[in-house]
Amino acid sequence: MTAPDTIRLGDWQDPSTLVGQILSRQTMILTAGQLVSAWRRCSLSSDFWARYASLFSKRFDAGHPVQREALESAVSYLLNELFENCAKFSSASIDTVKYESWVMPGGIVIQLTNHILPEKQAGFVELMKELLDGDPDELYFRKLEQNAESDQAGSGLGYLSLMKDYNIRFGFRFYKLDDRSTAVDVQAHINIKEI
Predict the structure, then answer these.
(1) Most buried one in 59, 80, 193, 194, CB count within 10 A?
(2) Is residue 17 part of a domain?
(3) Looking at the 3D structure of the chain, how many domains does it have?
(4) Looking at the domain assignment, is residue 1 inside a domain?
(5) Beta strands across the sheet bearing 181-191
(6) What is the pLDDT along the chain (195 residues), one digit of tens a residue?
(7) Does residue 52 lie within any of the structural domains?
(8) What CATH number is attached to the domain comprising 67?
C-alpha cells in the first residue's frame, strides 16, 4: 500500500521486486554532515563501491566482454554525483544517507536515500520532472548556459550528463516522514550493455 504523500517519478522500481538472479546486494549508512565536513568521503565511498561492483564484470550477461575498468569508472562517476548531491542537499532533521545496490547479470540498480525539508520537495519534484521528460542533450546545453549566467546550484547538470553519456535511467521517490522531514530515494539503473 502506498502512503498518500508518496510521489514516484521516472524509472522507479520497488526494490522488493529485484529478486531472482541477484549476484550481490550491498548496504551502507552514512551521515550527511560527515560527508560535507570531510568531502573526500564522497569520492572514497564512490570508488570503493565502484570497485566492488566491477569485480562482477565476468559474471555480467552483456553479450560482449565487460571491461572492468570502464564499468568501475562509470559507476564511480555516477556514485560520486549521487553521494555529493545527498551531502549537499540533505536538510532535514534526519541526517542519514543510505546507500543500497543490487548487482544482477544484466545490470546494476543503485539507490541512495537522504532527507530534505518538506518545503523543498516541490522544487525538487519540478526539476526532476523537467529532466526526466525532456531531451537530455538539449537540456544539458540549456542548463549549462543558465548556470554560466546565474551561478545556479542544483540545476540537474550531473543527472543530465549521466543520462546522456551513460544512458543511466533515473527513478525518484519522495515520501513525507513528518513535518520536518521528507525522504528522497534516488535510483540509478545501469544497463550493462551500455557500458
Answers:
(1) 80
(2) no
(3) 1
(4) no
(5) 6-10, 169-178, 181-191, 107-116, 96-104, 24-31
(6) 455 589 999 999 998 888 778 999 999 999 998 888 888 899 999 999 999 999 999 999 888 888 999 999 999 999 999 999 999 999 888 999 999 999 999 999 999 999 999 999 999 999 999 999 999 999 999 988 887 777 666 678 999 999 999 999 999 999 999 999 999 999 999 999 888
(7) yes
(8) 3.30.565.10
